Each structure stands twice: as structure tokens, then as C-alpha cells.
Amino acid sequence: MDQLLFVWVEKFRNIENVGFNFSNRYEINYKKGENEIIVNTVDGESVLKEDDVKLLFNDEKHYLEDFFQIENKNNVTISQICALIGKNSSGKSNIIDFILTAISIGSRNKLQSNYILVFKKDNELCFFGKTNNNNLNTSTLICLNKNVPKIEPDKNWVSMFYSNVADNKEHIFNDSSVYNYSFNKLNELQSNKIDFVSSIFFEDTWKRLNTKDSPIKNVRFVFNPISFLRIEKANDLDERLAGILKRYRKAIYEESSSNANRFYYGLVINLLCFLYESKLDISPILQEVNLVGSDGFAEAIRILHPKVVLFLAGINEMDSDTLKKDEFDSYKNLINQFSLKDEDGKVVVYNLGQIDNYNNSILVDFNDDFKKILLDNQIAFNNSSLITHDWSQLSSGLKAYLNLFSQLFDLSSKVTKPNNQNILICIDEGDLYLHPEWQKNFLNDLIWFLEQIFTNINIQLLLTSHSPFLISDLPKENVILLDKDCKPDRQLNQSSSFGANIHQLYNKQFFLINGAIGEFARIKISNILSELKYVNKTTLEKYEKLISMIGEPVLRIRLEEELQKYVKMIGREALIEWHKSQILQLNKEIE
């Protein structure tokens, strides 16, 4: 299977003269002075055979091709998975950023120093990059005294980047051939959530993520009419426009008994406000509106609303940098959906679920009625300058899971060209925000989902994480540990990789330098131990209580033994009292 095997970087951020092996089969080293790579198996055996022109791999019989498959569905092959594990600022994200920048056409010129990317394509050794300060066209690479052939990776691989990290980091492969699903792109990609929920894959995914002993929740979306909310905060509004806003707010959030009406009213007033923000002349509708009473409200919603809808229907063109004509037309069609009539000439009534009382948001059920509304109007939800939406009433973990799956689903709908048979999927801390139970299931769920949504494809996964659960799911050759200087280590012990006990992993120095308990508790217990030598009759009860609170039994017994040693120094009477307290404690534990 085609794979990215190795990357060497001369200088990129905190990466300097470092090579990274991403295959669990091969160990590749680059000799910069000779501009030569040496390729062996991870066990140090020779792996290449030569013909007159090519350098071919000769180890197929030693490898489990289907190791990362679960159902082997749709002819999807997960050919390789590599996890970059490191502490904050170790350079995990930088490695991914570099690889995707080098692969993508639009950003390569940002890489000034030398670098190489080594691939296996059709069982042949290939490379791409810059060597000896040459340009991409004139650079060469040697292996076994032969020139390694060059390839254009963007023509052979589709690349994707996904991140759960809300750091607003600007990845330098932006505006390039990489499918960028970073956190700061989520608003632009918000319609992907609805596309995923509308798909045939969602129901099985939803059941998988909801445990058997928990009730299945309704999927709800929260919508925010953002133009309306912005204009409300503006100063010096025309009094009639201010009156319209007041009336719509009262109708939407206080008086409406129908969730569908709330949604409909929100769409209408939001478009009117967007037109106002876009400097369109809305004076014709303002002249038609009357103010009533002394509080500045416009006339009743049953009179006001038809006037506003009629005004919006008459606007066919608008000039806005943030709204294309098809988006504008789709949004108007979405509004018109609520005026459609059935065969008997009655206006269709939609049920969008119960009303939840929020001041600025409208929650709707993702049900059959909402799907009918969406059917011809999905494009209206693509433009975040008009309306934003998100999953509603979900835990941060479930939301993170669904965000990842919805973006992967979007990628699967785009990867349809016959020549795009290889995908490099880079996921930066995809298990962030997940409950430990979901962290434990993360890799298994990810592979399962990829097998559902893709067809006839070879996938290579590059993952970053802080989680020891990921190490437990991967053979040691599939894990790269990064130190603080972004130096890689692939020499995990056998007990620290595939199938390893999570408690063993937490006790490895890489994860927790000062043990597997919270830092506050560690410091507190250390202080207790150092203070026991000063125990006296007055403080004895205090330290007895502190030690009894410790949940780890071996540690608690060790401290009790230490306390007993110092109690003996206080005197016979104190020792007797101490033994009595120990007997009482044992009786409580037995009961």
C-alpha cells in the first residue's frame, strides 16, 4: 500500500535536523552530508531490491496488511497509523503543519530550508523535497548508489487536517490543496454538521456514541440570528427600526407558543437586519410601520410581520461581499418554506420540537419536519455571516466527536476522483475534551467510521495526542515519543505499547514525572511525611485524620507505619490511644 514513510527537516520552527519515521515496518535514516538515505526494516534487515531502474520493497510476506481493519468494509484499507505523543510545546502540531505545507501546492514556497519526504508508491521507493539547497526540480536523493525517483505528492495523495484545539492558530498550509478542517474554520464549515446528520450514516454513529444504558437524546441544533443580535446593540437606530426589533424580540422570545414560528420570525428579522448592515435602503418598510404605545414598540406582530415578509420578497438583488446571490436566494426560499400550502390550500404547519427559553438562541429538533425544510435550502446554512448554528445540549466530548465525524464525512463526499486513491488524514488532538471512556474507544470508533463512509480507498492516519490510551491501542513501532526539543524516540518497551495496562502507562516517566496522582495531593502527602517527625499529643489526632483520608492503601499504610514510629517517641499513653484509634478505624472498614 502507498504510504508516507519518512520526513527529514533541516529547520522548521522548533524542528531542526530531525528525521521522523511514520511506518511500523521501516527504519529510514538520512545522511545529510552524503545526501543519502538508508532503508531497513525496524529489525535492521535490508528491505530493498534493485532492478535496472527502480528501488523496490521486498518484505510483503513479513507484514500483516489487515492489522488496522475492523470490518474490512467498502474495500477501505487503513494502511498505516502513527501517533505523535508529546507534552505541550514539544512540536507535535509543527510536524503536521510542516508535512501538509510541503505536500500542498500553494504553500511550498514558504519552506526555505532543505527537507525530504520519502514515500512508498506501488511498492517503489520515491521522494519529494529540497536537498543541497537546490530547488524542487533540481534536488536529488541517493539510496544504494541510485537516484531515488521523484513524485508530486499532491497528485497521488489527498490530504486532510483536523484539529480540536481552540487556539486560533494560523496554519501556513491555508488556502492550499489541503482540506483544512481546523477549529478556526468550523464556522465556515458549519453546514457539514447538517449534511452529516442528514446522511444514512448518522443513525448508526449516534447509537454507537450513546451507551446502551443511557437514553437516546434527540439531536437538536441551536440557531443564532446574528445580524439581528448585532443590530440590537447598535446606537442611534431609527426609531421605527428599533421598534421593529423590539416587537420581533417580544414575539420570538416571549410570546410565541410555536417553536416553528420562533424559528420563522428569527429568519425574517435576521435577513432584514442583514440588509440594513449591508447598507441596503430599507426606508420603504420603515415608512410602512407604525409605532404603538409609549415604549417604542412597532405594531402587533400579526400586522408587522406580513409587511416585512412582503418587503423582503421584493428584493431580488443585493450587493454584498459576504453574501453570494445563490446564498441570498436560498435564504429567501427558506423563509418562503413557512408559507407553503398543502393540497387543501392550508399553510403547512411544522413541528420543530419544544420551546427552550433562551434569550438569543432558538433550538430546533432535527426531525422529519426540519429535514423537509432543509431539503432544498441547505446552502442557506453555509454562510456564517447570516446565521450560525451548532449542536445543542450535548456534552463537550460528544460535540467534539460529532464535529470530527461530520468533517470526515464531508471529506468522503469530496474524494470521488479515480486518481485520488490515497488519503493522508492528520488529526491534531482529536481525543481532546473526551471523557476517558471515549478516549479509550477513540481509535476503534475512528477506524469503524472511516470504513463506513469511504469506498475503495487507502488511508494513512497521523495522530497527535497527550493520551496514554492511544499508546495502548498501537504497537510500539507505531508510536513516536517527542521530547521538549522535538527529538523523536520510537524505542518504547514491550510493556508500554499495544494492549498495555493504562495504569502502567500513567506511571511511565514520559507521562507523569511525579507519579500518577494529582499534584495538590502529592505535595500535601509529601508535606505530611516530612512533618510527622514533629508530631506531639496536640497534633496527633490531626495527622491521624489526614492519613485516613488517603485512598491509595499501600501509601496510607506506609504513612501509618511512619506515624507509629514517631508516636512511640511521645510516650506509652499516646501509643495506646493511637492503637485504639486504629482498632476503631478497622471496625468501620469491616462494617
TrEMBL record:
GO terms for molecular function: ATP binding; ATP hydrolysis activity. Gene3D superfamilies: P-loop containing nucleotide triphosphate hydrolases. Residues 83-472 form the ATPase AAA-type core domain. Pfam families: AAA_21 (PF13304). Transmembrane segments: none annotated. InterPro entries: ATPase_AAA_core, Bact_Antivir_Def_Nuclease, P-loop_NTPase. It comes from the Bacteria. PANTHER family: ATP/GTP PHOSPHATASE, EXCINUCLEASE ATPASE SUBUNIT. This is ATPase AAA-type core domain-containing protein. The lineage of its organism: Bacteria, Pseudomonadati, Bacteroidota, Flavobacteriia, Flavobacteriales.
